[in-house]
Design goal:
Elements lengths: L12 H12 L11 H6 L6 H12 L6 H8 L6 H5 L6 H15 L4 H15 L1 H13 L6 H4 L18 E5 L5 H4 L2 H12 L2 E5 L8 H4 L4 H15 L6 H9 L13 E3 L2 H8 L1 H4 L7 H9 L1 E3 H4 L4 H7 L17 E4 L3 H6 L5 H8 L3 E2 L15 H4 L1 H15 L6 E4 L2 H8 L6 E3 H10 L2
Parallel strand pairs: 1-2, 1-3, 3-4, 5-6, 5-7, 7-8
Helix pairs in contact: 1-6, 3-6, 4-6, 11-25
This protein binds iron/sulfur cluster (2 copies).
The site of one iron/sulfur cluster has 13 residues, from helix 2, helix 3 and helix 5.
């Protein structure tokens, strides 16, 4: 698509990147068919091709309006359109630039600014969010329905392993997940421990930056990224040590540091893998960011290498009993978050591990579609988010699975708010399969 950048944007990093992405779009519209917001609203401007056109106008100097901003706000950033696009258009990076440019020119209503500010500052401050979540969980039965749905019931996380191992990986010291469902990190650490891998959490690390990045605070998001890089850098194995460990049959005990940054929230994983891109112009951090991104693995990418050992550790998985009293495999529906299947292009790995550990995977329709959680989208666009959640749950539950599993804290809590079927992180199920008596 031919573009003529406005003078004020020409020769800037954002302008050059937007120009390059826009030129790769041939305007074919294949992406429109798989866009969740287009499917719900039926408006071209609420689909990827229409949003790309709006952003093209902005970078060419047309003054955006509040209406432009709302069409961009309604995008889930699910990147389903990237998976569909035959031309490799990097829509995710383009919408980031478009939103930044529009927000500089269109002031949001006061209530919107207040809500976004409260989410940005409240969710990313661990101690504040932790306190608020504990309070919310204590008075949960008394909360109004809408608020109760945002506060998951507290579950005992169980013990954190105490053994030390030569093989080490870094876990994210996240913001929201440890406060809402601490059982996810604890289950991850136990599964890794069972495999002889120590999970290390760097105390000075914190939020991955995704919340600020998507709430008009790109500078704050970059600060989050730099803080994490500084916290992880001394813990990472050197390239030489990693090469030597690989040469020794992946015996990372020779690596002398963490062999990977393993992420169990796919939204955070997608963000950390993008540090390399976000900090590419930072002379002090570009190289480090590239290495951190390259060493980041979703749990669904890291564990398949351990499949045989995991399979040996899993106890027979027991679901309902048939007439002969023989155990039948638990029937699980796995919802792959957009940040896993579209953002990181990781597909099928979780399902395969669960089957290896004795589960039956229940297939369902429209597995490529977003559940409506999308970070803070479920709060800021609650009507659309609820429609998408209910549509997703109808598909997931069509064949009555015993449990719904997923891989991102936002999807888990959003889906659970609409069903009585247990919704869990898949590593919690695997942990139970390994530790059950
Ligand atoms: S983003 Fe891709 S699929 Fe969509 S209109 Fe452009 S080239 Fe076609
Ligand atoms: S990111 Fe998702 S919601 Fe946004 S345009 Fe692409 S498919 Fe549609």
């Amino acid at each position: 698509m031919q573009t003529n950048l406005a003078d004020w944007l020409r020769d800037t990093p954002d302008g050059m990147e937007a120009d390059s992405i826009l030129r790769s779009c041939v305007h074919c519209g294949f992406c429109t068919a798989t866009c969740p917001t287009y499917q719900l609203l039926g408006d071209e401007l609420d689909g990827p091709r229409g949003r790309i056109y709006l952003i093209k106008q902005v970078v060419e100097g047309v003054t955006p309006t509040r209406e432009t901003q709302q069409h961009l706000d309604r995008c889930l950033t699910c990147r389903n359109c990237e998976s569909t696009c035959p031309s490799g258009v990097q829509y995710g990076h383009l919408i980031d630039i478009g939103r930044k440019l529009v927000d500089r020119q269109v002031e949001r209503p006061a209530g919107d600014r207040l809500l976004r500010g409260a989410l940005r500052e409240g969710m990313t401050r661990r101690s504040l969010f932790d306190t608020a979540m504990r309070l919310g969980q204590t008075v949960r039965p008394l909360l109004p329905e809408a608020l109760r749905a945002k506060v998951p019931q507290r579950r005992d996380p169980g013990a954190w392993p105490v053994r030390s191992h030569a093989r080490k990986v870094i876990l994210l010291n996240g913001c929201v997940q440890p406060a809402m469902i601490p059982a996810i990190d604890a289950a991850t650490a136990r599964v890794l421990d069972a495999l002889g891998i120590e999970a290390v959490v760097a105390p000075r690390s914190g939020c991955c930056g995704a919340i600020r990045h998507h709430l008009d605070d790109q500078a704050g998001a970059l600060d989050d990224a730099r803080r994490n890089i500084d916290a992880w850098w001394p813990l990472l194995a050197t390239d030489t040590a990693l090469a030597s460990a690989a040469g020794a049959g992946n015996d990372a005990s020779r690596a002398g540091g963490a062999q990977a940054i393993v992420i169990n929230a796919s939204g955070c994983g997608a963000m950390i893998k993008d540090y390399a891109h976000l900090l590419r112009h930072d002379p002090l951090y570009a190289d480090k960011a590239a290495r951190v991104s390259a060493m980041t693995r979703d749990l669904a990418e890291f564990l398949p290498a351990e499949r045989e050992r995991l399979q040996a550790l899993c106890r027979p998985a027991v679901g309902a009993h048939d007439g002969d009293k023989r155990p039948t495999p638990p029937r699980l529906a796995f919802h792959p978050p957009c940040t896993l299947q579209h953002g990181q292009q990781v597909r099928g790995e979780v399902e395969s591990l669960l089957v290896a550990c004795g589960a039956e995977i229940v297939p369902f329709a429209e597995s490529h579609l977003c559940c409506g959680s999308a970070g803070t989208y479920s709060v800021l666009q609650s009507t659309l988010a609820t429609q998408l959640r209910d549509r997703k749950l109808a598909s997931l539950q069509a064949d009555s699975p015993d449990q719904i599993l997923s891989a991102n804290i936002g999807c888990l809590t959003h889906l659970q708010s609409g069903t009585d079927t247990p919704v869990r992180h898949w590593i919690e199920w695997l942990d139970r399969a390994i530790t059950r008596a």
